Amino acid sequence: MAANSELIADVVQKVLEELVQEKDRGTDEFTGIYDTVDEAVNNAVEAQKRLVVMTLERRGEIIASIRQAILDNNESLSELATQETKIGRYEDKIIENILCATKTPGVEDIRPEVISGDHGLTLLEYAHVGVIGALTPITNPTGTFIHNSISMISAGNAVVFNPHPTARETSLKIIQVIHQAIVDAGGPASLVSCVREPTLETAGQIIKHPKINMLVATGGRPVVKAVLSSGKKAIGAGAGNPPALVDETAHIRKAADSIVNGASINNNVFCTCEKEVIVVDEVADALIKFMQETGKAYLLTPEEAEKVTQLVVTPDGKLNTKYVGKDVQVILNEIGINLTEEYRLAIFEASENHPLFWLEQMMPIMPIVRVKNVQEGIRLGVEVEQGNRHTAIMHSTNVDNMTAFARAVQTTIFVKNGPSYAGIGLGGEGHTAFTIAGPTGEGLTSARTFTRQRRCTLVESFRII
Ligand code: NAD
Q: What's the Cα-to-Cα distance from 257 to each of 50, 208, 264, 291, 360, rounded to whole Å?
């Protein structure tokens, strides 16, 4: 026993000495940013080995340090992300980063479980998987990094990111901030890393790399398909097209407020944002009136709606990505409408075959479709969600109607009587996630998602009753 604890103490001492040397080397040559995928992965492998021999208490300190560093650098990160990607709103990115820094679960999420019974005691632990390759979207370059880093490191892993090339500067900056926070807390360098020039090619190299143990894709359908075809354990967090269904029993003013706020946050780019409204005819006029009365939603005339559609949807029915995440003022200005700055959303009445009803528009232009009754609304809501299993929202006071839609639509997140973002913990109960794994079923991911289960069984002993 004594020999064993001496051995462990030696290993820990050696690791700590190396860490001190690493800190002395400064951050210039050791920032978690590498020229090649191979270098990033090899350093991540070493960093992860060091992390797992540290105490959980130290791991908790590293996570606390990351949270604080994000809060300290929030303004510059949000500004850089908005300027570089030209997507979303600065003030909403501030909220996104606070949410991810404070409501992403940490080390407590991997608390072990115990089964005690006639045959003794079994311990179930959530162990690290090793090095994770994470592919991140352009829409939430900061939030996804913060959430993924906190979750994956809490679980004892290192992570090599392949950020979206269009968010390169923001991603390199956030890697530096997180890296520095880790080193400052006495953690190993290179726990988070990426290549200096991320491309689709480097994404492919990460996917195939033999030392990457798990893949996580947050993005559209192609990237989810790419990781799921890799032959490795993979988590896919894909596209959504969340419908907001309003029935005749809803508190209509509250529904209107919630939809306007939920659909316009960060210019509609959160994958959870309301992307279309389906409303029972009886209350449709009231809903539209109350949406206008928020002072944030501009009602387009049919002619204006037609012009906007031609602007943001290409002739072959695809999204004109030039307008993704732009302010409503910028989009409407292109068709000669000048809106004052308090507006956050444009709404218009549409038929159910309107292209923006079916496309994941990710811009503050919102189609509203009338239906005869709630049954028709549920049928249409299920169809337009398109089997993404992502998010749906309902405004109603009829428990049977809400239960019927929730059961029929089968989404990972179902929000009742609030804005969509309540489903990711912003003004709603529960933790946050910016990697919501609908296709592979892990739901709102957290540290526990990035683990493998290990069981240890003690036969006939250690039971105390
Ligand atoms: P995207 O799929 O174009 O890009 C995501 C990442 O995958 C990028 O790093 C990109 O370089 C990489 N990539 C794309 N195709 C690839 C391929 N074939 N092989 C390897 N890598 C590939 O997505 P985006 O435009 O950046 O983000 C918007 C999409 O992401 C929307 O559909 C949105 O709903 C979705 N999203 C989902 C979640 C979620 O949690 N479910 C969160 C945020 C965004």
A: 49, 46, 11, 6, 21
Q: What digits encode the pLDDT tens for the residues 142-168?
A: 999 999 999 999 999 999 999 999 999
What is this structure's pTM?
A: 0.94
The secondary element (H helix, E strand) that includes residue 134 is: strand 131-135
**Parallel, antiparallel, or unpaired for β 391-395 and 365-371?**
unpaired
C-alpha angle with apex 139: 180 to 296, nearest 5 degrees? 115
Quick check: helix, strand or coil at residue 250? coil
Tokens of 194: 């990426």
Report the side by side order of strands in the sheet with 233-237.
33-34, 192-195, 158-162, 131-135, 214-218, 233-237
* Residue 268, C-beta contacts closer than 8 angstroms, at least 6 positions apart: 275, 325, 345, 361, 362, 363, 364, 365, 366
CA distances from 79 to 9, 32, 99, 281 (A): 45, 22, 17, 42
Bridge partners for 414 per DSSP: 392
pLDDT digits (tens, 9 = 90+) for 415-450: 999 999 999 999 999 999 999 999 999 999 999 999
With contact defined as beta carbons under 8 Å apart, do 115 and 67 qualify? no
CA atoms of 222 and 215, how far apart (whole Å): 14
Distance, CA of 147 to CA of 192 (rounded, Å): 12
Rounded distance between C-alpha atoms, residue 101 and residue 264, angstroms: 22
Section 115-122 average pLDDT: 94
Instruction: State both tokens at 426.
Output: 């912003």
Distance from C-alpha of 221 to C-alpha of 358, rounded to nearest angstrom: 15
Question: What φ, ψ does residue 388 adopt, rounded to 5°?
Answer: -70, -20
Q: How many angstroms separate the first and last alpha carbons of the chain?
A: 28
* Cβ of 135 below 6 Å from ligand 1: yes
Nearest atom in ligand 1 to 164's CA: 9
Q: Beta partners for 395? A: 246
Q: Which two tokens stand for residue 360?
A: 């994941």
Answer for the pair 110, 447: CB distance below 8 angstroms, yes or no.
yes
CA 34 to chain centre: 25
Pocket of ligand 1, candidates 84, 139, 321, 359: which has the most ligand atoms within 8 Å of its Cβ, to mutate? 139
Query: Helical H runs in 155-280?
Result: 168-184, 200-208, 221-228, 252-264
Q: Which amino acid is at 83?
A: Q
Q: Which of 168, 218, 320, 440 to mutate to test the pocket of ligand 1 (most atoms within 8 A of CB)?
A: 218
Handedness of CA 176, 181, 184, 189 (dihedral sign): negative
The closest residue, in CA terms, to atom 36 on ligand 1 is: 219
Query: Which has the closest alpha carbon to 237: 106, 112, 143?
Result: 143
